[in-house]
Amino acid sequence: MKHLLSAQDLTLDETILILDTAAQMAATQSREIKKLPTLRGRTVVNLFFEDSTRTRISFETAAKRLSADVINFSAKGSSVSKGESLKDTALTLHAMGADAVVVRHWASGAPHQLAHSGWLGSVDNPVAVLNAGDGTHEHPTQALLDAFTIRRHLVGRAGGATGDGVGRDLKGLKVAIVGDVLHSRVARSNVHLLRTLGAEVTLVSPPTLLPVGVETWPCATSYDLDETLARWQPDAVMMLRVQRERMSGGAGAFFPSTLEYARRYGLDQRRLAMLPAHTVVMHPGPMNRGLEISAEAADSTRSVIVEQVANGVAVRMAALYLLLAGGSSAEGSSI
Ligand code: CP
Fold first, then answer.
1. Where is pLDDT greater, at 162 or 74?
2. 237, 202 Cβ separation under 8 angstroms
3. Residue 50 Cα: closest atom of ligand 1
4. Per-residue pLDDT tens for 95-147?
5. Nearest by Cα to 297 from 287, 307, 310
6. Is residue 142 within 8 Å of residue 149, measured between CB atoms?
7. Cis-peptide into 276, omega within 30 deg
8. What angle do CA 78, 81, 87 make, to 5 degrees?
9. Which of 55, 261, 300, 316 is most enclosed, with most CB atoms within 10 A?
10. End-to-end CA separation in angstroms for the chain
11. By alpha-carbon position, which residue is closest to atom 5 of ligand 1?
12. Tell me, what's the pLDDT at 174?
């Protein structure tokens, strides 16, 4: 395993391997001493060109729990503001001995460019690159932690007493992904990963917030949230953030008002009541409370939003471990 760039690249076996490894990592995190010696002497660089709370802290925690040295690089306050290129930043990181680079970038494709340019070591022996979210393209570790969370809750104990659904896929489960699909790398990664795992996916969105070509994605689409919740009865409802910072002309170019958006596409108490008792409510964060999700829904007993954050550490520990220390099953390929 060399890189983790895209959920679309992952096979079913690779996905199950990451989720099962994450289950093992999660088990170590309830111990008094949470730190493992696995990546002692290795250096992980967090290279963030865009704002982040969860992903950056989660990758840092994961690397430290595996005893790696961690360098945090934020474009703000670095020589990027003086015009330094991605290539020169990469060459600098390589010169400093990075073993893995976790990259978040506003440009779709930046992690792929880093992984395959030769700027971070030779093409045959590159530094591992992990995509922490690139533009509107992909956010593979978010999709992995979402799948891990769904599996833990809805697949559960088959094959053992761990409650993690170890070894299992998500066949038979229905997931509604609701909101600003157009700007969402989380939605794109989730559609592909959930389909790989055998789940059915419906995207629910205003027509203006569905991307051109969505009909080629392996999922259904709907403009009607009430109908999807009431008739389709999803097992998980994943709410997406309205990404106003990516909307040129402001949100007004995509929907008439925030009030109307919340009324038609927001998850609130009334809509929660339409769902089966076992259905979980998810959100990748950060949330716009009162817009795509009400405070009552975000804080309800069905919400697994805080758990998603905790599971992110285990999933990222698994990804770092498989890329830097393990990973015989997909040697030479990207995971
Ligand atoms: N879910 C997610 O990517 O959150 P951050 O932007 O805070 O990292």
1. 74
2. no
3. 6
4. 999 999 999 999 999 999 999 999 998 877 889 999 999 999 999 999 999 99
5. 287
6. no
7. no
8. 75
9. 316
10. 5
11. 52
12. 98
Nearest CA to ligand 1 atom 4: 54
What is the residue whose two structure tokens read 């905790």? 310
Q: Check residue 121 and report its DSSP letter.
A: B
- Sign, CA torsion 42/20/241/58: negative
pLDDT tens for 322-335 read 999 975 444 444 55
**Joined tokens for residue 93:** 């990181």
pLDDT at 86 over 60: yes
Cα separation, 140 vs 133, in Å, equals: 7
- Is the four-CA dihedral 192, 194, 199, 204 of positive or negative sign? negative
Q: Dmax of the chain from CA atoms?
A: 57
Using most ligand atoms within 8 A of CB, pick from 46, 49, 51, 54 the residue to mutate for ligand 1.
54
What is the sign of the dihedral through the CA atoms of 16, 285, 195 and 275?
A: positive
Task: State how far the Cα of 8 lies from the Cα of 138, in Å rounded to an integer.
Answer: 9
CA quadruple 55, 60, 66, 70: dihedral, nearest 10: 140
Tell which atom from ligand 1 comes closest to the C-alpha of 53: 7
Read off the amino acid at residue 274: M
Pocket of ligand 1 (CB under 6 A): 52-55, 133, 139, 142, 284-286
Q: For residue 55, which atom of ligand 1 is closest to its CA?
A: 8
Q: State phi, psi for 280 to the nearest 5 degrees.
A: -100, 150
What ranges make up the beta strands (E) of 167-317? 174-178, 200-204, 220-222, 236-239, 280-282
Pairing of strands 43-48, 174-178: unpaired
Q: Which residues of 203-227 are buried (b: 16+ CB within 10 A; e: fewer)?
A: bbbbeebbbeebeebebebbeebee
Tokens of 214: 């969505």
Return d(Cα 19, Cα 166) in angstroms, integer: 8
